[in-house]
Structures are given as structure tokens and as C-alpha cells.
Amino acid sequence: MARENEDAGMAEDVSKAKSQRKSKAKETKTRTVHANTLHDFAKGEENPSRRYANNRIKTTKYTVLSFLPKNLFEQFHRLANVYFVFIALLNFVPVVNTFLPELALAPVLFILSVTAIKDIWEDYRRHRSDMEINHMDCLVYSRAEKGYVEKYWKEVRVGDFIRLRCNEILPADVLLLSSSDPDRLCHIETATLDGETNLKQRQVVRSFFDLDCDFDPLKYNSVIECEKPNNDLNRFRGYIIHQSGKKDALYKENLLLRGCTIRNTEEAVGIVIYAGHETKAMLNNNGPRYKRSKLERQMNVDVFWCVIILLVMCLFAALGHGLWMFQYGDKRPVFDVLSPEGTNLSPIMSAIYLFLTMIIVFQVLIPISLFVSIEIVKICQVYFIHQDADLYDEETDSHLQCRALNITEDLGQMQYIFSDKTGTLTENKMVFRRCTVAGVEYSHDANAKRIAMYQEMDSEEEECISHGGTLPRRDSVGSHQSARVLRSHSTKSHRRTGSRAEAKRASILSKHTAFSSPMEKDITPDPQLLDKVNDCSSQLDFMRLHSQPMSQLPSDLSDVFDFFIALTICNTVVVSSPNQPRQKVRMRFELKSPVKTIEDFIKRFTPSRLTSGSNNSSSSSLNRSSNKGGSSMQSCPSAESTLTKLNEEQSSSVMEHAFSPAPPSYDGKAFCTPDEGELRYEAESPDEAALVYAARAYKCSLVGRLPDQVTVELPHLGKLNFELLHTLGFDSTRKRMSVVVRHPLTDQITVYTKGADSVIMELIRPPITGNSKGRRQKKILCRTQNYLNLYAADGLRTLCIAKKVLSKDEYARWLQHHLQAETAIQRREELLFESALRLETNLQLLGATGIEDRLQDGVPETIASLRKAGLQIWVLTGDKQETAVNIAYACKLLDPEEELLTLNADSQEACKLLLEESLHYIQAKFLCSSGDASAKDFHANVSSFEIYPSSPLSSHAASDSVHRLGLVIDGRTLAYALDASLEDTFLTVARSCRSVLCCRSTPLQKSMVVKLVRNKLKVMTLAIGDGANDVSMIQVADVGVGISGQEGMQAVMASDFALPRFRYLQKLLLVHGHWCYSRLANMILYFFYKNAMFVALIFWYQFYCGFSGSAMIDQWYLIFFNLMFSSFPQLISGTLDKDVSAETLQQLPQLYTSGQNSEEYKPYMFWMNMIDAFYQSLVCFFIPYFAYTDSDVDLFTWGTPITTIALLTILLHLGIETKTWTWMNCLSIAFSVALFFTVALCYNASCPTCYPPSNPYWTIQRLLQDPVFYLLCTIAPVAALLPRYFYRACHSTLFPNPVQVGRQLDKLPADTRRNILSLSRVKMGSWLSPRQPSLPVGKPQNCTQKDQRGTEAPAKRAGAESVQQGPAHPPDPHSSSLKELGAKNDPLLSEELQPASTKDPSDPSWVPSTQMDRVQLNLPPSRAPPCVTYVRSSETALSCEQTPPCSRGTTAEAELYTAV
Amino acid sequence: MKEEGNYANRPSNTAFTQQRLPAWQPMLSAGVVIPGFLLIGLAFIGIGVGLLITSRSIQVLELDYTGTETSSPCYQCTMSNQSNCVCKLSFSIGTLFKGPVFFYYGLTNYFQNQRKYGVSKDFNQLIGDVSYFKSPSSDCQPYQRVNGKPIVPCGAIANSMFNDTFKLYQIINGKEELVPFDGKGIAWWTDYNIKYRNPDYTPLKNAFNDTEKPVFWTKPAYELDTSDASNNGFINQDFLVWMRRAALPNFRKLYRRITEGNYKDGLPAGNYSLEISYNYPVISFEGTKKVTFSNVSWMGGQNEFLGIAYLVIGSMCVVMSVVMLIVYAKFRFPEED
């Protein structure tokens, strides 16, 4: 696939190259940074940092001098431009020239200068912004001044010391050496880099950590070795070498990146490591993406054909000229002109010369202005898409962004959509729903009720939007519209604060925390669990007072306690107070370190554990934090001395200090009323925030987080400080995160792990069989697993919480390795990963949580209409299978009426087998529908002018091969299926399914799937996602769409289009995509037609001028025809024409298929247009020819009418093709005609001696007095356009295609139209089309029998299981579900062992018999209302309180059906 | 409630930006198309009939005098390089040839529209700029210089100027009576007055010092019409007519008009004799020469094509509308009402 990266980063490359050249003398793999203060420039001492790029940025491509050559050079990279220049230059060769050479240059110069002006303008804007940035101020240390002086950004150099103040923007990549923050932290906001709004903490380099006073640059004498500049924002490795020879590792946590903003930190000092273009921000700054659209690729093929046609025409003419010359032999006629030398030119030579001449004459055939016109039209289209108020999201004040400017028409040709789930289909607003602790489920009914209330409020506002909870609406079209309109301001504002997201921009503006609507924050605790928590903490309190060991706590209570501690601290949430959202809440309790031997040992190995970072008393620490500046003049002890001091320090017991309450004054000030609304949590992911808020609801609230400690407030116990030893962050491979803390109550080193259930469950320590504890654990494990399944079935996101207690020895051993990993420069990531794996084993399961991720507004409707539009929608998600399936039902991706093929295999062979079986199954089951070819053919014929608004069968041309099947595949199976040997089978299976759901897939798999489908099926793919894990898939797809949602901007940065909400995809594709495609397709076709028609006129003339390359059309008209006379109307209609109105396009998504099938621009249409062009040119040529035959007409008096006729014909042709006439269309056509006559009149009156060789002086003036001229201008266009007009008229009145039907619908009054559209199965084609289609909607009759056969076996099975389902209505809903689940698992497990080969493909009963290819036959519509199944996830929640057992029963039933 | 500042990015809600400009959607529905076709067809048929009648009223008389056949009176002139060969062509007119009668000479298979031929002239010479007399434009190659002297007027067009001359006699009672020709105003007014000028020299001859006449010419440009200064040099009407290149290889050019004396109302019936001084060679390229007498209407000379074209297109429109009507009536649905 042609995909070119435009050299936007050219300037960067150049500067990079320059810097590389400079540093070539000492080419190493690392960069060495010395402080500039060490080198006195006055003495001319060579500073090694000189070699590095300075901080001046220059993103401009050109300078005043280099503009012309460089811009021309770039423009000539386009082959077309070279071609046109070649032609223009050819005109300067006397033997072949036709036009005034200067004139021939005009079009090329025009095109080049238009592009150049555009480039100048862009470059000037870049220059302006560069200037602005380069002249920003910052404080740089000056050795001469012995202090910091203000300098421009551009004067900053590598090795400079910079002082940064709060809210300043970083001028370069700076290594943090000192911070006014007592914790030696510096907070930065990276919104400009990655769009994430939460503050990031950066740490002072370790060796400078203990510097207690201000950093003195003059005393700095270390050398920094770090890696070469690179663009990885999340990586920085290096070490600092002190004069003492001590080395210290540097991490990305030490680096402040250019473009970030300093927050919450009064002052920080750092040394510049990378400057200017070598900063990570600049290296990441890629230019806009350049893709070539499908239409453009198709167009290029036809441009190639045009070249062929041109060459054939030239060759023909050359041959003709040779023969013409040859027939005269030696007898030269009087009108022959000899060569300048007076010698006879041989016919062969003159033929060769003529060939070149003809290329010049016929150059118009290659549409020089087409490329420019397309760019102009696309810019206009992008403008209109930007301006669409329907794509504007009020909540976030953001509208759609088109980041790629040249693939708008691809939006109208999509065939496959690959969607992420979380954050794309769903809000990514995590609401804590329920949890299970130690095997006991807490259903949080009150909480569910509360959420239901919010949802009700929501649905009052937008009745039509069903978040998987309301019944499906067949006739929602009408109410949809009205409900939108009725939304009042008050509800809107409620929505903003209430149920929906304060999205990114708003949160940046307001500086409030992200992810915090009341719905997520105010969690109503489950009374049972709340009791337990209270119980637990009061007991703990009691025990603490009585100095009892903590281990005496009953194990269920201790699990509850640990569970909430884990929820609270196992995250990276930053706490801020609401009044000053960006001010970190400072809660420092001094931990007097115990100086036991083991602790000391640990301490020596853990410089990162900074618990006792300050040797001051707690009061002085607090003092300093509240009163910075003042203590700045204290002496600076070296790092070593601090450490020794620490060790010397004596203290009593851990317990005492851990429990020491905060100083009363401080406590009283800040936390006198520690109610929930007080603190805000800033989380990197919404899951974390949801869990922390949930824990807070149980009075277990996170009140402070520092890099070395976490403070938790508990009832009775007050504030507990957890010494944070390590944080092993989340990554997508491990799918978990852990914190290592020292538990203040037990003084044990404890690991809390939180992660995906599939991962955690494997890491749980196998329960010791035999004793009671082991049995209990086994029970917990089993129960939790069941609840997890239940949660997933409800569409909740599940997380498992586990813990592990480490002995000091174990910890010490692990620590040793971990530290090695941390300090390693090579392979650090891998080593850290391995280290994390070593730690996270043998865990003890505490419980699990279920978090709901609500569907976004309008997702089911959007998916439904996109599917009607013939788009195949695949969902690729990292979530677990059950969750994904349920969300898929909720958003109507899967239909309960359709069968579900589930592929789960653990090996390549199993996967292969499964795929083949599925294939057999599909073939067997749907044999009749594909076998009955005649019916199918008839259907295919009829469907072109039939519209079934609600029938998916006719929606897609390929619908015959797409069955009502859903495919679910998990990540592991996907990995096997994507293997080269299986991918074809996989694709065949996947193709025949209506929807595909890939769960548990990694980002790489996502992109592989997209790539596979795109390359193998040769279809247009669109990938939509919101997170960093979608970036690869977005980049691979033909069109990448990013949702500018909660998870930062990475997806948006990688995307071609960025949408605020998923539902806008509908209008973007169905309306704008369709328009853009049909506009451009028509414009391109028109362009080809226009040029061919014009050029053919001259070609016909060659037969009457001895093929001498003479033209009856004046050179001016010939050259400016494309550029001026005929260019405006097509630009206008290419920008504004609407074949069908936006409303109809959205209500009839089927119309989208015209773009998918490239119906507006099929290859044959090019040739049809060519033929039409040749026909029209014949008419336009021969009518004047015969009208003037045997007359005394002179060349241009005859040629000018032809030009006029051609122009009129071409404009009228556009008129026929134009579907909507606005005043702009009329104006542009009138303008074109007027322009032609004005130019002609002026030109023909201007100069009697100029413009050789034509000089048509006074021609048009005479013609305008000639009645024949007008007669010709009337008849020729009519005769030329008659066939096309007749064809169009017949086509649209007698055999309208769906698009034309749509147009006809547009003409109807609005209410009539709505009536027609709301009738679900009205055959709209039929009342307009002559033939009454008789094919039954749905499957052919003879298929039903087989269908039943297919359902027989599962029906039996369902019957068998319904025995077990018998006690499905006991008072306790949970147990019923449990039993049901158990029933589901056991037989399936046993059958998994059966050899698959025993199954006979011809017998349909084998099909649903293994778990691996669990073919889930749908509920026959008669047996149960279909909505029950897919609504249940939230329906349950709604109806749960009223009749809990009953609704459970429904769930169980549904569950059963799903299991079958 | 809503503050504008909060919605800084809200797109402006205008008909243009929202693509809701009031528009007319022409539907090619049968109700519009069929009457439209019929109307256009009828109008065209009307025009066509008018044109045809006009064209039929024009009288044309064509006489070929190439002399390729031995029976032709000009046959002997084609035989050898005879200078000043004169041949006489006799013809008779049955009825009055209505005036004013235009007298044309015609050439066939003559490519005045050839590209290299068309380029070969110098506008600046022809507008009377003497400086270009000395150094003619290189476009005139190879008719730029002869024997080192510049050619005025240079170029192939001027060089190949048609040089047959005609005299028409009416034979009244066996006596030949000269029919007076009017040679004024046969060229374009702008050519005569603006585009072509003689250099401002008296006598005109002086301007042509040190120049050569075109190689095919028998007399220099300043002797084209010695009797009338306003028809001499570059503004000689025959020269102007020739210099205006014909569009097609078969063409005729106006030679004279018959507007004077007894023949003001046309050529009366009778016998005529055309005396031709046969100079121009056309046999070599298989061309023919002819003369044409014609009178003109408002739409120029006789040409039935335009009228027939209008008739054909008009009837096609009518046929199409009928066809559509039939098809439409056949497949028409009750819902249409």
C-alpha cells in the first residue's frame, strides 16, 4: 500500500545531521554533559557541551535564500510537476513548439507558485511561532554574575543550570538536581506532550537528594553520561559520575521534559541535558501524516491510462503526419514549409518532431490542475467537517479534528471497523459496582440503586439512548430527533456534572481532577461490608492499645482489612485538595527508622526507599514545607553523611512511630473535618480512581501519597503510614501492578497486587490441602472465581486483589536483584520486568472487584446503523471474554438472535481443528442459502433498487455470505489463528460472521488483525480507539480514528481523525464520508472527461490539417481553459454538492454501500466518461465543421465557436451531474461563462501584433454579431449532452439506484419522508421501481428446515440442563447462579477431552458439543423475548431491588442459554 | 446559563458552514423530463425549418477550372510552365442570380491551416514597422531572406499568395460585356485598418529598399495595385484575404463582389464567360481550383447542414420523449399518484 511519509521533519533531520557531523570527531554511544560553569568561555577553553545542539529551534523549512531552490526541488519531487515543466520546456525547442513559449510556462508557473505561496505562508507561521518560543525567558546560571540571569530560550545550552519556578514551561530537557519541595520532588504537567492531565512526579537525582539547602551550581563538578537523544518519552537512562568516582543511575523520573509545565513546586534547578531539536518533545514532533486514499490510488491508475491515451493519440498523429508528408513525395506543395535551412525534411523526421509537438498540444489531457483542485477541495471538505455542529461535543468543547488532510474520501469507503472497547464504546468512566472479599460477595444493592437513579436521569434527557438497559427500539428514528431537540439547558448542565464525563479539556481548564463525577465518587457502601470494616478497625484499634499481635485478627476480618488497604494504596493515585487542585496535600509523619540489623541492611540496599530522607524533626520538616525559602541557607551535608547520620539515629519502635498521630495543629488545620468531599484523587486510569473512591466510601481513605510513603486514614485507627518500598507499575504484558510496603501494624514487608483476574488467579499460591486454612483458601478461590464469572457476565470489569507477605530474607534476596536491575543501563526494562515477575508469585487472594464501564451515549444506535451501512464491525479488546461478550450484547454488536461461535484453544493444533470445524459448520448450516444460487442471484439483482430499512440482509452487497453469526475469539487463540498457516482459514470463518469479538488481545495483536484483514481481504479498514494500546492498530488501518477521551492523547496523536465521542462516527462516515467520497469521485471523473473532451476536439482537427499539430483553438484558450474558464464550477460542486441530504443518509445507512462498492467511480466509469467525452467532442467538432464547410471561414473564426461550444457543453455537463444547486453553483457557472467572454473580448481587442502565432484580433467581436454563432452554441451542447441526459433521466426515473431513491426521498415533504422511513419493511424501491420484488425477506424458506435441525441438538442439551436449572428460583440468587455456573463448567470441561475427530461434520449435532467451539445457538424468538438476554446486564441492576430472586432467575436463565 | 467563552470551539451555526444552503435539487423525474424534451424538440424543429428555408433560398454556382480533364478549357495551362496562360470558362445562368452576388475562388486539398505554414509570417512587418523590413522574424524561415536580402512580406503565407485573376464577361448578343467587380471591403475591416498598415513612405516603394519580393511573387508588394494607393502594399484586399488563413483544407475566399452598374440586382439570365489568368499551381498536390458565385443571407452562404441538424436533434428529442412516455406509462405504478 502506498503510504508516504512526507518530509515534514526535514528541518529536524538537517539540524540533526549537522549536530552529528559536529560530533563525529568523538562518536560514542552516549552523551557526556559537563556543566558549563566549569568552563570559562572567556579563556576560550573547549567545552565538550559545545558540540551539542543549542536550544534555538528552527522548524522552518526555508530561509529567504534557500526558499526558491529548495521549494522547487521539493515540488519537483512530484512526477506530475516534472512532466509539466518538461512540456513547457519542450515549447522552447523551435522545431516542435506550438505555443508562445512564455505562455506555455504559465500553467506550470501558476501551479508551482500557488503551491509555493502556500508553503511560504506555512513556513512563515512556523517562523513566527519559532521566534516566539525562542524568545521566551528563563533563568540561567551565569558564572560571571554568580547568580541566575534571565536569558532567552534560544541561548540555553547543554550544560547550563536552569532555575525553574512554578508554572513555568521547561525550555529544554533538564535533569532535576534540586527542588524546593521537601520531598525533593518536582511536579510536572505533561498535557502538552501526551495530553494526560494528572501531575507527574519527578525526583531529584539521588545523589543530590540530601542536599538540604539550595543547590550551588559552582560546587557542581560531576559528569553526566546519558544516552543519545531519542524520541522515547518514557525512557531515559544514564548515570552521573561524581568527582569522588561514585556513579549514580539516572532514570526518566529525573528528567524534566521540554514543553512540560512545573506545578506545585516553587523552585527547581536542573542541568540541561538535551536542548533544542534534540529534546524528546521535538524529536516526537512529527509532521502531519500523509496517506494516499483509495480513490486517489484509483485515480492514479486512470491518470496512467490518460498517459497511454495521450501517447496513442500522439503516435497516431505522428504516423498520420508522416504519411501526409510522404504522399507529396518530392513535389513540395506551395503551402509546405521547408526546414529553416531550406532543406526538405524527411517524413520520418517530421513525424518524430510532430510526436513531440503533439505532446505539447495534447498536454491538457493530463490534468495539470487536477492535483491542485483535489487539494483545494479536500481542504474545503476538511473545513466543513470541522465546522459541523453535530460533531461538536459541548461537554468537552471540542469538535472533530482532521489530522490527515487528504483521506477524507476514504471515510466514505470503509468496509471494516475495528474498534477498541474501553473508552471507545464505553465511557471509560469506571463506577465501582460490587466486590467480593474472602469469598463473600457484597452486592452493593444500594449503590446499584443509586447508579440506576443516575441512569434514569440520563434516560429522561435522552430517551432514545439506551445504555444497554432499555428495550430496543425499532422505531426510534422519530423519537430520536425530537428528544434531542427537547433537551433543556438545565438537564444539560446536570448531565455535565452528573452522569457524563468532564472530559479532558474541561478538566484542564478548570484544573479539577479528572475522572470524578459524583456518580463515580459517591459510592454507597454495602452495609454488611461496612460493618465488617468498622468491626475490623475497632478490633485493630483495640489490639493496638493492648499491644496484641496483629495476627490474632480473625482471618476474614484481616482479609477485609487487607483488601481495603490494597484498594487504597495499590495504585499511583495522587491526592490533591479541592480548593487548590494542584496543590499536593502535604502529610508528612516522620518515621523514625528502626535500626535493627535487618532493617539497616535493607536500608543500605534501598536508596530509593526514602522514608527517612530528612534528618530533621517532624516539626522542622513541616515548618520547612510551609515556609520554604527561609531555610535555604542551611549548610549542605553530603549524601554520604546523611546516610551515616540516618543509621546512627536511634529510635524506639516502629509501632510507636507508625501510630504517632499527626501533629495536632496540622491535623486540626487541614483535616478537622475529613469528610469525603475534601480530597481529590488524580489517577492515571479511571479504574484506580474508582477503587480509591470505593475504599473511601468504607472510610478507608487515601489522604496522602509521597514517593516513599502512603498515608491512609481509617476509622478508629486514624492515619496509618505505609512505607512505600517499591511500586511495580502496571504494564500490559504483566497485566497487574504491585506495591511493596512495610505494613505499619505488623511491620511486615507486604506486597499488594492488583490485576486482571486471569493473571492473578494463576499466581495464587496453591492452597495447602489438608488443614482448615487450606480448605478455606480453596473455598475462597473457588467462590471468587465464580463471582468473577458472574461479574464478567454482567459486563463488569474485574480486578483481583491479592497480597503476599515477604520475610525479610526473601525481601533482601529479591531486593538485591531488583537493585541490580534498576541500576543497569542496558536492558533495564527487561531486568525490571523479570524482577517484577519474581516478586509476584505465591500470592494470597483477598478478593475481587467489579467495576462498571458504562456504554457511551448512542453506541448501540451507532453500531446498528453502521452495520446497516454494510460495515463489518470487529471489536478488539483487552478485556476478558465474558465482559467483552456482555458489552457486545449491550451495544448490540452481538444480537441475541444470532449464533455465537466461540473459539478458545490452547494450542496451534486445537486452533486449527476449531477453525476447520467452524468452517464446516458454517458451510453445512448455510449451505442452502448459498446453494440456492438462483434465489441469491435474483436477490442480488433486486437488492440494488430495494431498500429494507431494517433488514440487514440487503444492506450489504456481500450480505449473502455474511450469516447471522457472531465470532468470539480470545487472545491466545487469536495468536494461533494469526499464524501464517491458519490465517486464511481464520479469515474465512471471520468473514462469514456478522460480528467478530477478539478479547484479551494485546496491542500488537490488534494491529496484526487489522493488517491481516486489510492485506488479505483487500478491504478498507478503519480503526478506532482511545488509548495508547490502540495506537498500533490506528496506525495500521487505512483510516485511524482516535477518541479524545480519558486516556490521554496518544491515540489522537496517531490518528487521522479525532472524535470526541464514538457516536459521532456515524455522521462522520455516513454523511461526511459519503459526501466526500461522492463529491471527489464525481469531480475526478468530471476532470478526466473535461480534459479528454477538450483535447479530442484538437485531435479531430488533425485529420483536417495534415496532422500538423495545428490547433483551431487559440493557444490562450487552450492553456487557460483548465486553469480559469472551467475550474470554478467544479471546485464549487466538488465542495458543496450533496447527492443525498444528511438526514436521509443517516436514516438510510444502506446508502453508504455506494461508497463501499466504489459505485461512484468504478474503473469502467472512467472509460464510459472517456467514450462520452469523445462522443461529445465529435459533436462539438463536427457541427461547426459541417456548418462552415466550404465557406470562407478563417481558422480562428471557426475555432472560437468550437471553444465556446466546448465550454458550454462542459459546464452544462457539470450541471447535469450536479445534484444540488445552490446560488454558489449558479454563480460559479455564470462566472465561468462571463469570464470566458470577458477574457476573449479583451484578448481579441488588445493587440493586433502580439501573441504569435495565432493573433485572433477582433474575432470574437465579429462572431458575436453572427447569428450562426448563436445557432451553433444552442444546438451543439444540446446534441452533445442529449445521450447523457437521456441516460440520466431514464436511470433516475425508471431504474433508480438506492442513492437516487434517497434523493427522491429528499424531495418529499419532511413528515411524509419520516413516515416512509419509519415503516420498517416498506420496500421503497418498489413503489418507484417497475418490478415488484417477490423474494421473501430473510432466509429462503427451504433453509428453515435445516436451521431447525441445527437447533435440535442444543435444544436437547438445553432441556437436559434445565433439570439443573430447576432450582433456579431459590431465595438466594447467588447460589442459584453458582450452581448454574458449575453446571455449565463441568460437562464442558469433560467434553473438552473428547477427541475432536470423532465429530462428523455432516451431522449438525456435533457442533455445539465442545467448549472450544461453543456454538451458542440463539434463543428462538418464539421462546423468549429476545431483549431479555442482551439487556440483562443492567436490567438486573434495575430490577434487582424490587424482586431480586426473580430477576436473578432471569439472569440465570439467560446465562444458561448463553452457556448452551 | 451558557457562556460563550466556554464554547470557544463551537462551530458557527450558519447555513454555509453546516452545508444547509438553500438548494434546488433538479430531479430528472419523468414529469419534468418528458415535457422538457418535447418542448426542446419542437422548438428545434421550428428553428430547423426556418434555417432550411433560408438556406434553400440562396443561389450558388460553382465552376471548377483546375483543368485536369482534357476537356477543360484550362487544360493547356496545366501542361507546362506557361506564364500568363489565360483560359476562358463559359457558362450560362437560367434565371436571375439575385444580387448582391459574391464571387469566390476556391481551393481544395490546400492546407492553409498547416502549423508551420500558419506560423510563417511577421506581424510587425505587416503593420508597417520598417525596422522589421531589415530583419524579418525568424518565424518566416525559410522565406526570411533570399540572396542575403530580407524578404518583405516574409513568410510562407505571403509567399504562397493566390495569384490567379478573373474577369467576368456577359455575352450579350455575341459580344462580351465586362461585368464590373467590386474589390473594396472584401477583407475584414480590422485587417484593413488596424492589423495591416503600409509603412508611412511616399512613394511606398522607398520603404522596400534593399528588400526582396517573396520568391513566388512576380511583382513586389508595392505594385500589387498600382492604380489605387489604398489597395496597395500590405493593405491590398486580395493580400488581406489570403493572409487570413482558412480553417479547413477545402475553402473558398472572397474575390470580388458584383454590386455595380447593371448588375446591382444580380446577374441576369444569359451566357457568361469567365476569363482566368491561370497562374497558381495546384496539380502537384492534387488540389483543385474553382470559382463560386453566390448570394448571401443573414446566415451567410448556402449551408443546409445547420437546418438539417436542428431538425434531426429536434425530432430526436421528440422521439425520446415519446419513448420515455411509453416506457413510463408501461411501468407506472398506482403509488405514483
Description:
The complex is a heterodimer of chains A (1460) and B (337). With 1460 residues, chain A is an alpha+beta fold. Chain A has a 10-stranded mixed beta sheet with strand order 16-35-34-33-17-29-32-31-30-36, sandwiched between helices. In chain A, strands 19-18-28-27-26-25-24-23-22 form a 9-stranded antiparallel beta sheet, with helices on both faces. Chain B folds into 2 domains: 63 residues; 190 residues, no CATH class. In chain B, the strands form 4 sheets. Chain B has a 4-stranded antiparallel beta sheet. Chain B has a 4-stranded antiparallel beta sheet with strand order 2-11-7-8. A two-stranded antiparallel sheet of chain B has the order 3-10. The radius of gyration of chain B is 30 Å and the shape is extended.
Main attributes of the structure:
heterodimer, A: 1460 residues, alpha+beta, nine-stranded antiparallel β-sheet, 36 strands, elongated, disordered N terminus, B: 337 residues, 2 domains, four-stranded antiparallel β-sheet, 12 strands, disordered C terminus, aminophospholipid flippase activity (chain B), Cell cycle control protein (chain B), CDC50/LEM3_fam (chain B), transmembrane helix (chain B)
